[in-house]
Amino acid sequence: MRLVQITDCHLRADPLAPSRAGFPLRQLQAVVEHARRQRPDVVLVSGDVSQDATPASYRHALDVLAALDCPWYWLPGNHDHLTHMADARPLHDQVDLGEWRMLLLNTQVVGQPHGEVGAAQCDWLNEQLADDTRPTLIAMHHPPLEVGADWMDAIGLQDRERFWATLEGHEQVKAVLCGHIHQAFAGCRAMQEEGTEVAVYGTPATADQFLPGAASFAIDQASRPGYRVIDLGQRGLATWVERVTL
Prior knowledge:
Shape: globular
Number of domains: 1
InterPro entries: Calcineurin-like_PHP, CNP_phosphodiesterase-III, GpdQ/CpdA-like, Metallo-depent_PP-like
GO molecular function, one term: cyclic-nucleotide phosphodiesterase activity
Domain Calcineurin-like phosphoesterase: 1-183
CATH topology: Purple Acid Phosphatase, chain A, domain 2
Keywords: Hydrolase, Iron, Metal-binding
Protein name: Icc protein
């Protein structure tokens, strides 16, 4: 089973609108075309599809993502308009991946850049994990770990300890996939069960890239758009990042 993660498209109603360092719609088109060559079974779009929260920006996304030869799913980021997004294409909270499954969380706090899972969603997550012991991926927009950039860590997942506490005792959770950070990232969280940890993977944006390790907001002018490939098998997962030359 091959999953591709695309994230942080930041589209606008104007298809020719630039970002700080490029042209988001053109970059999304290039990333999707490149990702198709990986022959994914499923694609995840992990939030911030829109920059201006307009219905037109989601229509642009649908037009581009229609080129995929597989099912795809999306979840909201802090910039997204939940109603416009759901009107364009339904939101799902779980995806059957055969021997694996993926649970999708909404970490948006309306009007704020940071994220939260929230008590109700943590209760739901605990119930889902208790009912199905298949190897599991969790997808969300905001990173549940610090990524080493002061300004970004300040707007990450605010209730991360509650989230991690929810995962305790559920050893089938193998990895968390997140967006928001506009850069490749790999980390892990050690769990209380000895020898158990959960991997956390961040993914380059299709739009601008952020400079790793920056104390304040900074664009990484030398980096390129990209996406993440995740291969799921009986013995675990393998993952890597692909960069796209425009």
